[in-house]
Design goal:
This protein is of the alpha+beta class and 386 residues long. It folds into four domains: 91 residues, conserved putative lor/sdh protein from methanococcus maripaludis s2 fold; 87 residues, Elongation Factor Tu (Ef-tu), domain 3, CATH 2.40.30.170; 67 residues, OB fold (Dihydrolipoamide Acetyltransferase, E2P) (Beta Barrel); 84 residues, no CATH class. The chain has eight helices and 22 strands.
Length: 386
């Protein structure tokens, strides 16, 4: 019997001890566990702090280089090409005034000398009449005859002193023969083609000894000091450019940079691409006619603007900013969309832009920034030290 009561008493004691232990443990639970669990559901995000400044627009361009001074050479006379001092071959460099092409002019030169000789005879024949009828002008004609040389270019005729003298000279065909000689002299000059500027021959279609015909294309000649890049700019970007805007250019095949300036801008819009042609002058060497260059033009200066990754722009031209630990959709002014970034206005210095848009983001959702988390951790460490 005693053993039976003993077992009951032990059981009761164990139950009482269990209740006491459970009550003690429940009192030892720290308040705020639920709060911590709730806090862990708030998303931590990274942000970009807005620092507005003046930004120069960079407008990308690409185009083909061509020489500003490019001359296509055509023959205006017929004859056989002579051997020159420098060969008329592609790649030959020539100075201004040097002979590019020389065509045999023996026949034309002799014909000119014949005309000059006939003209000399005519003046000699009318000189006595001038002395008799127009004595006041005789001395000038006598001097003109004395200085007349067949090998030299024909000199201007003495001005008639009276109308009667002019009519007299006209009836003797003096003016007609004079201008025929001038025309022959001009034509004789066309047998020799001189370089109009320092440059290089880029194509040649004839060889010495070849018969050249009037109207035949002989080759091409360019200057190497002035080049022009032709490119197209969209209607959106053209408003930010002007004559003189600077450009920085490069080639994928050459490790060099070239500087240029907008020289001309077309007033015609391409109907297919809705773009405008611009022409950039490059006054530098080490370029080749036909090269492709890419780069950018320095456009207008945009004051109080900020540059962000273009992927952050939301439909309707807005972005997410973090304010009071919440996301807020903020309208912005989209100034320029570039390849990787966009230039915007409408934000205040110190605004925090969401660095990475995430699925499920909406206006008013609770978030915490990396900065606020770091601040909270520092605060916790400080309390622990105390």
């Amino acid at each position: 019997m005693f053993n039976k009561y003993k077992s009951i008493i032990i059981t009761v004691i164990i139950l009482l001890l269990g209740l006491l232990i459970a009550n003690y443990l429940s009192k030892q639970k720290k308040p705020g566990k639920r709060s911590t669990a709730t806090t862990s559901l708030i998303r931590t995000v990274e942000t970009i702090e807005v620092k507005n400044k003046a930004i120069t627009l960079s407008i990308p361009i690409t185009g083909k280089v061509r020489a500003v001074n490019k001359t296509e050479l055509y023959a205006e006379v017929t004859g056989v090409m002579s051997e020159g001092k420098a060969p008329f071959k592609e790649g030959v460099h020539v100075k201004k005034g040097d002979v590019l092409i020389e065509i045999n002019d023996d026949e034309a030169r002799l014909n000119l000398l014949s005309q000059k000789s006939n003209f000399l005879t005519l003046i000699t024949q009318i000189l006595p009449d001038i002395k008799l009828d127009f004595s006041k002008n005789y001395t000038r004609w006598e001097r003109y005859l004395a200085e007349y040389k067949l090998e030299n270019p024909i000199a201007p005729l003495p001005e008639p002193a009276t109308e009667s003298e002019k009519y007299f000279l006209a009836t003797r065909n003096l003016f007609s023969q004079y201008y025929a000689i001038k025309s022959a002299e001009v034509r004789l000059d066309k047998y020799t083609l001189l370089a109009p500027y320092d440059g290089v021959i880029i194509s040649s279609f004839i060889n010495p000894g070849t018969v050249v015909r009037a109207g035949q294309k002989l080759g091409e000649f360019i200057s190497q000091n002035h080049y022009e890049l032709e490119c197209a700019v969209s209607m959106q970007d053209i408003k930010n450019l002007k004559i003189g805007s600077e450009a920085v250019l490069k080639s994928d095949d050459v490790s060099s940079l070239w500087n240029g300036k907008i020289q001309r801008m077309s007033e015609v819009i391409d109907a297919g691409t809705q773009s405008v042609k611009i022409f950039i002058l490059i006054e530098e060497n080490h370029l080749k006619d036909g090269m492709f260059l890419s780069g950018y033009i320095k456009g207008s200066l945009i004051e109080n603007a900020f540059e962000i990754p273009r992927k952050l722009i939301l439909p309707g031209n807005s972005i997410y900013i973090v304010k009071d630990n919440e996301l807020h959709s903020q309208p912005i002014s989209l100034i320029k969309v570039q390849e990787e970034t966009s230039i915007i206005k409408g934000l205040d210095n110190g605004d925090l832009i969401l660095k990475e848009n995430f699925a499920g983001a909406y206006d008013g959702i609770k978030v915490q920034t990396m900065r606020s988390v770091a601040t909270q951790n520092e605060k916790t460490k400080s309390e622990v030290r105390k």
